[in-house]
Amino acid sequence: MFNRETWIEIAHTVTANPLRTALTGLSVGLGIFILVVMQGLGFGLQNGVEQDFADEAKNTIWVRTGTTTLAHRGRQPNRYIELRDEDEERVTEQVVETPAVSGRLSMWGSTVQYKNEQGNYPLMGVEPDFAELDLIPLEGGRWLHQDDVEKESKVCVIGENVINELFKQRSPIGEYIILRGITFRVVGHFAKNGRWGNSMVYIPMTTMQRLFQGNDAIGSMVLSTGDRDLEASTAMVDAIDGDLRLRHAVHPEDQRAVRVRDNQEEYAMFDRIFKGIRLFIWVIGGFTLLAGAIGVANIMAIVVKERTVEIGVRKALGATSGSILSLIVIEAVCLTLISGALGLIAGVATLNYAAPYAQHDYFTDPEVNLRVTVTALVVLVLAGALSGLVPALRAVRIRPIEALRYE
Amino acid sequence: MLALRGIEKAYPLAGGTLPVLKGIDLNIEQGEMVAIMGSSGSGKSTLLNVLGLLDGFDSGGYDLDGVDMSGLSEKQAARYRSLFLGFVFQSFNLISFKTAVENVALPLFYQKVPRRERQKRAMEMLGKMGMDDRADHLPSELSGGQKQRVAIARALITEPRVILADEPTGALDSSTSQDVVSVLREVNGSGITVIIVTHEADIAAKCDRTIRLHDGVIIEDGRSGDVVEPTANGAGSTD
Ligand SMILES: Nc1ncnc2c1ncn2[C@@H]1O[C@H](COP(=O)(O)OP(=O)(O)OP(=O)(O)O)[C@@H](O)[C@H]1O
Ligand SMILES: [Mg+2]
């Protein structure tokens, strides 16, 4: 089947009419190219969003507050809703049960000094649970303890950027740095993805409140949903949201004053979206490929028609139906496979070339995964075989006498 | 070797059928060289196609080498063709993108002969046709006579018992025609039956026996020299 003769004949068909071959190939190649590039972009988008999610534990609820936009129960709008210790206590003791919780009180652009070096970094007061809620990968030393919170210790855990810029490669553990004019001991350091993550300086919440805040505000609040499923975590969100609106007299429709966001739900939403996008891409790619396959089928039909006499002569000379069938099918498969492979290569090259220019928070590493590539190739071979089959069956039905009479 | 008994064949036509062979009785022995003549439309090609198992017939009987050929499937016909028969066409029907030697070797490819042997036998056969110096030429680079020699070589490569040639010289000038007939005569000399459809009396004269068809029936059958000049016959028919 795959011998020199067959290849010569294929080479002949392909080169007999280069323009026609090129145009047919183009339609298949373009189909695969579009499929590959769109898949790659889809993965890039997904990677970006997933990385964004990977920065935080998926089973977390984030509670933020702002100013009211609607009047409610006799209160005017434009009132700032501030979360305080009592909110955290009440929510975790009376409203919902959670295995982990932390406030997040930040001060951006805080001056940090180490010996002669100094820089501005965001300072954040958190509780011990925060490390697991925000997935902070400790590189050395230790994280903040409950003990630190109770004693309002002046200790901090710093990000990689702070080390690089202030400590210049030296180990920061046990060193003293000055935060907003007050001396803290570095007890741990970490490395995290993202722009801000690595520049963070974490200190105990109580220390933050006492030294820099002056009251018991906790900024925002993160809670773990534990091993709750999506439905249960949504119920948890509703409970927290309802409680806070009730306590702070916030209108149920007020979108700004109280915002409770469920990572799990958002992730599920993104997951659904990406499943949809992937399906969409396959459908588009599938139709593009189908158009290509029809093009190939069309060309093969023309080839069969043009070669009717030749096929008849071959039959008169002893060609079997099988040999005619395989000849046409192999030609079609070769045509689709070669042009498809070119489209594939072009697609991969485009993604690889474009990837470095297209890095964004929500778009990283647009990749061509192996599964898509293999699937695309299998689809191509099938499309080629199918598109060759119909004309080939017609060729097989040609009787030698009819072919010889053909004009 | 070839025996036709009361062969009838009609082509379906809009609103009826067109009878083309109307009861052909014919015996051809192994080693004969036969010319089939007759006016245009008399059914020569149809008869040759029936003999060559390229086409079926409606009624009558056909024995090839003592085997009944009626009601053959396409596949069986193909088998007998490749076993017994070789074809030479008026328009040569060489495959345009294959060289002379590749064209000659093609039937062996379908008989699953190994490549090297195909090549060797095809070269030998071209040599017998005096064409070995043109082995690597494409058909477009050959003259009409040369093309027909290649086609004859291709028909002979499978060592058939019968060569069927439909107007093999129809596209050639007269001296080249004589040339091609000489080749066929030589082929016949090696014991192969040769059946030639032709319009030309001097081609028929080179054969042992001439059969004349008129309107689907054999009107003359005899030694080539004895058959009357073709122009005298066929007049008055409206086919
Ligand atoms: N496929 C066909 N369908 C219908 N009629 C046909 C077909 N082939 C041949 N005929 C008719 O059958 C008759 C005999 O045709 P055939 O080709 O056998 O003639 P011929 O003797 O070979 O003529 P020529 O010398 O011109 O080649 C003609 O009238 C022709 O029109
Ligand atoms: Mg004819």
Molecular structure report:
The complex is a heterodimer of chains A (407) and B (239). By secondary structure, chain A is an alpha+beta fold. Chain A folds into 2 domains: 4-52 and 268-405, no CATH class; 60-262, no CATH class. In chain A, 56% of the residues lie in helices and 17% in strands. Chain A has 13 helices and 11 strands. Chain A has helices spanning 4-16, 18-54, 85-95, 130-133, 146-150, 160-167, 205-213, 230-247, 263-306, 308-316, 321-354, 370-397, 400-405; strands at 60-65, 83-84, 101-114, 117-126, 138-141, 155-159, 176-179, 182-190, 201-204, 217-224, 258-262. Chain A has a 6-stranded mixed barrel with strand order 3-4-9-6-8-7. Chain A starts with a helix and ends with a helix. In chain A, 40% of the residues are buried. The model of chain A has no long low-confidence stretch (mean pLDDT 86). By secondary structure, chain B is of the alpha/beta class. Chain B has one domain (30-56, 70-223): P-loop containing nucleotide triphosphate hydrolases (Rossmann fold). Chain B has 7 helices and 10 strands. The longest helix of chain B has 16 residues, at 174-189. The chains are: A alpha+beta (407), B alpha/beta (239). The A-B interface holds A 3-5, 8-9, 12, 16, 309-310, 313-321, 323, 399-401, 404 and B 49, 52, 54-55, 74-75, 78, 81-82, 87, 89, 93, 95-98, 102, 106-107, 109-111, 115, 154, 158. The complex binds adenosine-5'-triphosphate and magnesium ion.
